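Side project, low priority. Logging it here so it doesn't get lost.
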Amino acid sequence: MTFFIPEEKVLEIQNAADIIDIVSESVLLKRAGKNHVGLCPFHSEKTPSFTVNPEKQIFYCFGCTAGGNVFSFLMKHEGISFPEAARALARRYGIELPTGNISAAQKRVMSEREQILVANKHAVDCFSHALLSDSAGRKGLKYLSERGITGNTLERFGIGYAPEGWSNLMHHLARKGVPKKLLEKSGLVIENKQKNVFYDRFRNRIMFPIFNTGDQVIGFGGRVLDDSLPKYLNSPETPVYNKSRSLYGLNVTKQKCREKGLAFIVEGYMDLLALWQNGIENVVATLGTSLTSEHVRVLKGYAEKVILVYDSDDAGLKAAARSISIFDSGHLDSMILVLPEGYDPDSYVFEFGAEAFMKNAEKAIGPVDFLMESAIKKYGLSVEGKVRIVSAMKEHLAEIQDSVARSLYIKKMAEKLGIDDSAIMEKVRRAMNTKRSGSNAKSLLRREPGASDKRHKAWNGSATPTESYQMEKKIIAMMLQFPQVLSEIRRQEILSFFENGGLKKIGISILEHKGDSNRMVSDLIAIIDIPQERQLVASLAIEEGRWDIEGCLKLINKQFMASIKRKPSDLWMKIKEAEAQNDQEQLELLMQRLKDRKKIQNKLKFAGGKAL
């Protein structure tokens, strides 16, 4: 699991890391007793079900069942491997990891993703040197200076320059030992397969490195210095870069977004830099792509509300229309700010200043109101105009999931247009039914033939949890939450009576744990390879049960052991049913259960029918 990171180093990292610090960088957490709660970063929800326990150093979501320790969180949130998560935490907490004794085989094990991140870091250095220290970068500096960008901004965002020429970067990275095929996968170079040559993707462009929230370079955007096309050229999708969930500048602006509880969303690199440089630091950019539900999920961890700064043209209207369903399903408040015609955030803030921009921001309105006002402005309030407004708005209103909010907007529009709201409601209902029918048809097309007849077995090996499974799970929860009972579990050999192999394995790991009891759960999760088991441990440990030794003994002796003695002997009937149905998998499972039960009965008989 740890590859070539020594186990003692993993434990050192785990002991140094604070899960609250790590999680709170991407989730707004609020204290709730011993735990901290927030909106889950892994699924959309209105009510917080994501819980972090600082004492046990674990997290668990009661909505989507994601759970684990600090390593698990980083792995799932950033989409990285265990070694990458461990190395990221080691860097953060100043823990040195051994590198000198890595063999050639171990180097090959080092993930492609990590190698691309290293190549990107070299590329940033190369571009930065070209802009600030090379004569070739003078025209790049001149361009940025004319746009009002200061040296401090260049340094903070790592901005650089890709000189003219087909292979400047490729030759630089070759000297660093980066192979061409890896450079191609990183998106930094392109292969001309006909000529069997590679060449730099970015040439004669201002370079904007794109960082993740951990300050690792995941991609680049390049802007030309003149009016040639394409104006902007971005990195393609790579193992480290996904434009649908990446936001430019968030690594720099996340703290201000959190402090303000608000994030401005702009469309371009220069827009963001202009606002940030003028003191409006709670801003992100969407990297030349449409806003996605993944963007919203990321932003939920840093802001309670967002203001989208769009142009008043058709593209801005379309973007606002798309944002309704995205923010509605993501449960994040959104507003639309339209600057005066002919201005974007960059030009506006440099001409009129931050104060004027913020005064405009106070006039921001919700997406539905924005679209409504735009439709009225476009079509007018004639009879024909009103018909066209309703026709244009019905689809947008149908996107609103909250029935109360939808009803209020329909009433508001009816008042503005002087139309009976029931007429508008009927149009919206038809749009909703059409949309629902289309969704159902797509679902039927995607459904695998016979999928509805498939039985997906639960982790415990059966379609529904058995009574014994529930009892065994309760005992594991008791062991995790009240370690004082472990000596009694060990003395009575309770785990030997467990039928569920997975729960038994977890129980054995608990008994074998030698470290700090407060860190026991986090330590267990670190050594468990099966995701379902990690999530189960987190879910059983996250909530404190009201345990005392008397209650524990009652569970062990009067409930668990007693249930073993009085179990109905219905296995033979189930075995006959499985034979009749020729269900070999179920038959093998039942025969094994029969053997286990006979062993248990023999053990009880040997103990004189009493709890051991």
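Brief comment: The chain has a mean pLDDT of 84.
Revisit when time allows.
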